[in-house]
Amino acid sequence: MEITASMVKELRELTGAGPLDCKKALTEFGGDMERAAQYLKEKGLAKAAKKAGRATNEGLIETYLHHNRRVGVMVQLNCETDFVAKTPRFQELAHNLALHIANLAPRYVRREDIPAALVEEEKATQRARALEEGKPANVVDKIIEGRMTKFYQDLVLLEQEFLLDDSKTIADLIQEAIADLGENIQISRFARFALGEDQAEGDEA
């Protein structure tokens, strides 16, 4: 079967993979677009972890305004190239992130962004609570660890369960997109505005 330029273009738009990879995949699977896309996705998953350190100077800023106009979000999502930034897959990811932030109200991108003093204060609170509950001293640290996991999930975007699919976290969502699109992707920062709150919520990388 002849692999045409339009077929390569379609697969590239679906996956974000390079033209040579797209042509090879289509050739290998006899022009089967679905199988070729799945192959490139699996290939991308294997490479995703290696892309974490690559520069992300392109991307887009997505905005979301809730229907009652009382909650608004801006999120900066970065990737490596302008080409990937323009793909429907990347733009859908940015939209879903903004929607998620509007509804679940995280305060930080990652746990390392939380001020150390706030983390220590929470640990002290949970330790005092566990001791007041009469928990044995030898299991208090384990109890604190479990409760701190919940603390991070409440505050940290990457550790929250995705609004539209609670079987995955936001971090999982990003890794899937890296595998699909073949580039490093980073949530750089976000801001959430809500009437009745004193200031925007969000944090920078």
Structural description of this entry:
The chain is an alpha+beta fold. The protein has 3 domains: 5-50, Ubiquitin-associated (UBA) domain (Helicase, Ruva Protein, domain 3, Orthogonal Bundle); 54-110 and 156-194, Tetrahydropterin Synthase, Chain A; 115-153, GTP Cyclohydrolase I, Chain A, domain 1. Helix content is 50%, strand content 16%. It contains 8 helices and 5 strands; from the N terminus they run H-H-H-E-E-H-H-H-H-E-E-H-E. It has helices spanning 5-15, 19-28, 33-48, 82-85, 88-104, 116-132, 140-155, 170-181; strands spanning 58-65, 71-79, 161-162, 165-169, 186-194. Strands 1-2-5 form a 3-stranded antiparallel β-sheet. A two-stranded antiparallel sheet has the order 3-4. Helix 1 packs across helix 2, helix 2 packs across helix 3 and helix 6 crosses helix 7. The protein starts with a helix and ends in an 11-residue tail after the last strand.
Question: Keywords for this structure?
Answer:
205 residues, alpha+beta, Helicase, Ruva Protein, domain 3, Tetrahydropterin Synthase, Chain A, GTP Cyclohydrolase I, Chain A, domain 1, 3 domains, three-stranded antiparallel sheet, two-stranded antiparallel ribbon, 50% helix, 16% strand
